[in-house]
Known about the structure:
With about 425 residues, this protein is α+β, with helices and mostly antiparallel strands. It is built from 10 helices and 21 strands. β10 and β11 form a beta hairpin. Bound molecules: iron/sulfur cluster (2 copies). One iron/sulfur cluster (SF4) binds next to α3.
Amino acid sequence: MPDVYNWHLGRKMAYRFPERHPRFQFAAVFNTNRCIGCQTCTMACKSTWTFSRGQEYMWWNNVESKPYGGYPQFWDVKTLELLERADPGGQSWDPRQREDRRSPYGAYQGKTIFEAAPAGADALGYLPTDEEWRAPNIYEDTPTAYPTAPGAFHPTGEKLPEHRVWFFHLQRICNHCTYPACLAACPRNAIYKRPEDGIVLIDQKRCRGYKKCVEACPYKKPMFNAYTRVGEKCIGCYPRVEGKEPLFAGTPVEPRCMAACVGKIRLQGLVRLNADGSWAEDRQHPLYFLVRVAKVALPLYPQFGTQPNVYYVPPRWVPRPYLRQMFGPGVDDAIAAYTAPSRELLAVLQLFRTSQRIIFSYRIEEGPKVFETTINGRKWELFNDTVIGLDRTGKEIVRLTVEEPIYTRPPQHLNSI
Ligand code: SF4
Ligand code: SF4
């Protein structure tokens, strides 16, 4: 297998195909701290793409309750176990090899699913059983206990004094990975990554329904349609990303799951790539800022090796060892950055879900100081800055302040009885 560079791992890794990168990459940041588990995203996707015969069990977008839930059930535990069996004790990182551009999380020491593939296969994986696909959010809202007394700090630093238990919502779509396992495993070469936006698609005419993509994808996001007998997966709502949504005439628009998000936890965008696949420096791009500068958002299971393009702000209240195995070694820095956000980070966080149009850059107009407190023993100040989101052409599409304005409804209004 050729060697490719994976910056999540901070090293080269083996992959079926040589490196070739799109000009832009579909990417997103999901803030787990804000998700209310309402499943509006799930239903927005379902009612757009998977309402037909053979798709009854399909949830291209699902939101699962961690630690117990999963769709398909056990998807992450099973892949982690396979990786552990193939490379015992391998899933660790060397933080000394941390370098801002090439290896921001250090260097991964273990094997990826490509490097641990059994003879004759291109990736390590498994096929879920029919039963495991039966519920998109099994064990909904089921918590687990903190190992410490109520109100006490967990030994690893987090606490939520009001509660003795924890769970969180994990929002999941296809990651439109840089090195997709689905694509590597397809014997028909029916899966491709689009050069214009990095969206990963299955060519329905080439597919013969061998389910190799279902087996190989560690996130279990390709699904088999038993009626058409071919594989299907999230298509990143590519007509919207291309600007074909009639309501927005030519402007790139966020996918349906992002645009519908009630909790305002999602921010999607297109990230410009260098020829070597690294993110081109784009300081005023909100995703570049969140992932590469503030480092508040992290990839999901980077050790799998697919270099996924959905990034997560990890939940503050969850024991750190659980989060480190899930989001890698950047967890502590990400939570520290989120808990006491910088002035710029706080402004950029306001941009989530404020426009259906894709935001390509932002600028900030400074406002007055409106609040002061102490966070983790340090002084922290709140400024009522204004953040402005701009489209691809630099046109303003959204403007809002850090402090939410209060509007008083007039006595007579449209909903007056
Ligand atoms: S998440 Fe799975 S289906 Fe999506 S691109 Fe990555 S490997 Fe393929
Ligand atoms: S719509 Fe948003 S808040 Fe609701 S479940 Fe989906 S991601 Fe969470």
